[in-house]
Structures are given as structure tokens and as C-alpha cells.
Design brief:
Blueprint: H1 13-20, H2 22-36, H3 44-57, H4 61-73, H5 81-86, H6 97-109, H7 116-124, H8 129-152, H9 158-166
Helix pairs in contact: 1-2, 3-4, 3-6, 3-8, 4-9, 6-7, 6-8
Amino acid sequence: MPFFPSLSKDAGVRAIWERFNKKAWEGLSIFSRSFMHTDSMLSAGEKEMIAAYVSKLNDSEYCYAGHSRVAINNGISPEIFEPIIEDLEGAPVRQEMKPLLRFIRKLTLKPAQITQSDANEVFAAGWDEQSFHEAILVCARFSMMNRITIGHGLVVDEEKRFRDALNMNYAP
């Protein structure tokens, strides 16, 4: 049940934005569409996987549930989600994803400790600046959304999240 009495017990992210700041929702949707489903070295599914990964690291079950589903709908294997959290080095993801995910993990959990060396590992794995930039945007965007959903007390309604994930027009 959300913490805010004006929100229904099954309120989702859209309800928060429509209730409190519809203009910000519109801007956030434009921002999200500008990188979540654009062509780069990262597929749309991999960007959604990063969104789910960041959400899990931030303990946002609400965002993790929705974006892991969207990632799976975009071709990401469901078997990778637990391993990337528990043991990234042994996770069944392509090798060049591991330095990028290590960077994203550090950016999420210990942002003040990011160094040039961390970025160099990502570039050494073959990532171009555009794709690396998009991964950072995904991390930042979902760190913000995780705090919004947790702060408002949103809970996972698996059936509703599945329907919403299938109908995502990139609405956050």
C-alpha cells in the first residue's frame, strides 16, 4: 500500500506522476525514450537488463519486477538475473558486458569511488563512448526511479506489472 493516502492501494509509477507532476512525467518519458530504445552497441533488452540490475542493487523490487520482465520480453534470458547479482564473473552474460556491469554496480553502490581506471576497463572491453554513456544514463535514471517508488511505498503487483511491461510505450 502506498504511503500517500491519495494514491490507490494498487497505484503505479504513472499514478504518482499524474497526481503530483504530470509535466515532469512527460519530460521523463521523452528523456527515457531518447536512450532506452535507440540503436547502439547495447540492445534494448540489455538496457532493460541494466535497469533491472540497478533496481535489484537498490532493493527496488517494484522496478526490478517490471524491468526484468521487459528485458525478458526483449530477448534477455531469465537465467541471468540472479547470477549477475550473486556472481557477476560467473554470470551467463557476454564477456564484454562484465566490465560494464562492474562499472554500473560501482556507480550504483559507491559512486564517489569511480575512477578513470574503472572507465578504462569498460573501453578496453570494446565499448564505444555512446553505449557507455547510455549505460550510465540507464543507471542514473533507474537509481532515481527506485527512490521515487520506494519513497512513495509502491509495492509489486505481479499481474499488473506484467500487463504494464507488455504495454510499455516507454513510460517509466
